[in-house]
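Please predict the structure of the following assembly.
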Amino acid sequence: MGYVAIADRDHDIEHHDPDTFITKYIWSQDHKVIAIQYGITAIFVGVIALILSAMMRLQLGFPDTFSFITPENYYQFVTMHGMIMVIYLLTALFLGGFGNYLIPLMCGSRDMVFPYMNMLSFWVYLLSVIILLASFFVPGGSTGAGWTLYPPQAIMQGTPGTDWGIILMLASLGVFIIAFTMGGLNYVTTVLQARCRGMTLMRMPLSVWGIFIATVLGLLAFPALLVSAIMMLLDKTLMTSFFMPAISSFGQDPGYTGGSPILFQHLFWFFGHPEVYIVALPAFGIVSDLLSTHARKNIFGYRMMVWAIIAIGGLSFIVWAHHMYVSGMNPYFGFFFATTTLIIAVPTALKVYNWVLTLWEGNIHLRVPMLFAIGFIFTFIHGGLTGLFLGNVTIDLPLSDTYFVVAHFHMVMGVSPVLVVFGAIYHWWPKITGKMYNETLGKWHFWMTFLGTYAIYLPMHYLGFQGVPRRYFAMGNTDFMPASAQDLNAWITLSALFVAFTQILFFINVFWSLKSGKKADPNPWDATTLEWQTPDTPPKHGNWGHDLPECHRWAYDYSVPGYPDDFIPQNVPPEDAPAGRQHGVPEH
Amino acid sequence: MSEAVIEPTGGAGVVHDWSRDKQVFGVPWGKAMMWIFLLSDTFIFSCFLVGYMMVRISTTDPWPNPSEVFGLTVMGQSVPLLLIAIMTFVLITSSGTMALAVNMGYRKDRKKTFWLMLATAVLGATFVGMQAFEWTKLILEGVRPWENPFGAAQFGSSFFMITGFHGMHVSAGVIYLLIVAFRVRNGFYEKRGGNYEIVEIAGLYWHFVDLVWVFIFAFFYLW
Ligand code: HEM
Ligand SMILES: [Cu+2]
């Protein structure tokens, strides 16, 4: 098994370079091509999810205006939007996309340890996307159960898409999990077992750390989703009663008895909370590298950052029931889960301090990736603070299921990771394509997106305090809400449309750069990490040419006194480095 | 690395060892990956078993008595759990033959490795066969995923779901073992440096499936 792969071959003996178009770009086993395939697919479904959100906003901002959005449609849009954004866009893009691209390059390997399985992972992911999208076209349409798919309503008459939509959704999730597992095993094993010489774990760039721990979380959390999907499928198709209590539906007895809806919530959130960190940890890691590179300063507290990622990963498995305060639970459990939730804020806050301290007195270059990285710090602090509110049982109870929650999770796991995704794409674009992007266009993209999202989500906090409920098609004549709420809703919708259209700037930039962008320097940001030191840009199959690189220092030797450049790449041999910094810091 | 460094001790030493050069575990990639996969699979089975326990608590109907439901009548005598006892015995035995196969693999005794793996696969197939027999028997007695004549509907649901999922694991394992066994016999691995680590990797999976069965046996049949 291990001998087939090329990840850590020193010389490319019997190295078959793929030569036909098909083996090179379609059935490719090259981690870089697979990464791009993942990336394009994920961004494609992401755009669909964005369009869905625009449709929802149209309805909310201008009720009774758009006859093609029925209440059923609205529920289907909410559900598909949420599910696509969280799983098929962010999880797939961070792990399948950036994980695939960055892990072998940053660890100095030739490829993932099992390239064939890696390739399968993408094709199975594509299958899951096709199943998901097919659910728009089946009788009854896609499911409208909410992205949390809570039973009993998820499979009962009355919810849209209970005929086929829910079945396809569950099947698609199952297929996605298979795809993720095949990829995830590769990422974890590559990080653990196939780094280049000298690349100790404590010298890895934080991007790799974030992706690595996120993948571990995925491997341990997705099982709970898989099991709950199987059980719900059985409840739906074979009339078992795992999640379904005795219940009457439209005056009839559908024949369920004795199941536990709360069991589903536990299983779902045992997956669901770690899932939040599956999209957050890669963002944490990547943003650390962007900040350090573009501020020409070492990341503040590297080891602390690593331990914080590990601690957050571990803690994320014991906070899940903070999503279930309104489902009712023993007060001692509420106490326990509130406490663990607040404890997780400690390593998280520590990371935020370290990012800010990395910027402190740095030589900050406000290039596009850096703008997005700094934007992330703002939105993440913002979303994190509202998380502290919701983590407390007594404060959560009135706020739960209001727009305050919508605002919170969009800030913390919607906007923040998406900003990092954009920052990362701009940052690695020259390496991936060999072309430069248009800086001005990128800056416009950033400012309009960043300010636009604030225009969307700040007012939502206020609407939440007013009690505007989440997942409502229309507010109706709800007495407790001031009439001004509707004006705000219209404003939010206009902002959302603005942000959605702004993303066109990004795509223009992409195509412009591919067509007529300037040829990129191999290391345009003067970065230290190994992916910028490849012999070719973009890197060729096998990444490193004849000899694998050797790593001699950590990833953050920026502005080291006594060295001609203001950065020392990780593969610079000790004899060339200034005295006292032969092996970098903090590795002794 | 060639640095002459003072190795740290205590907690820092543990970190240092784990983060050492190139690889964390001194094992081939395939084996490391199998271990990680099994860890993930452990979570799947744990979720199944926890789910089963929870519906057993939540259901309002009485839970059937497993030793009666799973009894066999032999020569007019009802023997509780007889079939399961035999099935468990067969599966545990197959773990033994698997362990021997791994040993023979490392001795590069291709013939014995092949036969022992084949025996393991046959024992595994026997297990699946007996499980099919048990399913048939229960279905004939009226047990369905959605109802059964003995009590709580969740009994049949969890039974078919959990043993079915485990049975799929065993069946996949049988196929996996057969592929490796025939490759061992054909000299497939000779062309790749004569390395028989793959036998052990298949063995890891097999032992895991056996171990899971012990838990299913304890939680489902004995409780
Ligand atoms: C400009 C971008 C976005 C806009 C305008 C937007 C808008 C919305 C709207 C209107 C809802 C439904 C609220 C309700 O009726 O309860 C919603 C729900 C949701 N959104 Fe977004 N969203 C955006 C981006 C994202 C991103 C990037 C994520 C990724 C995490 C995300 C995740 C979710 C989730 C998980 C839900 C909950 C779905 C549910 O209640 O089942 N959204 N969004
Ligand atoms: Cu949570």
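Residues 1-6, 10-14 of chain A have pLDDT under 50 and may be disordered. Residues A 273, 276, 319, 322-323 surround copper (II) ion (ligand 2) (CB under 6 Å).
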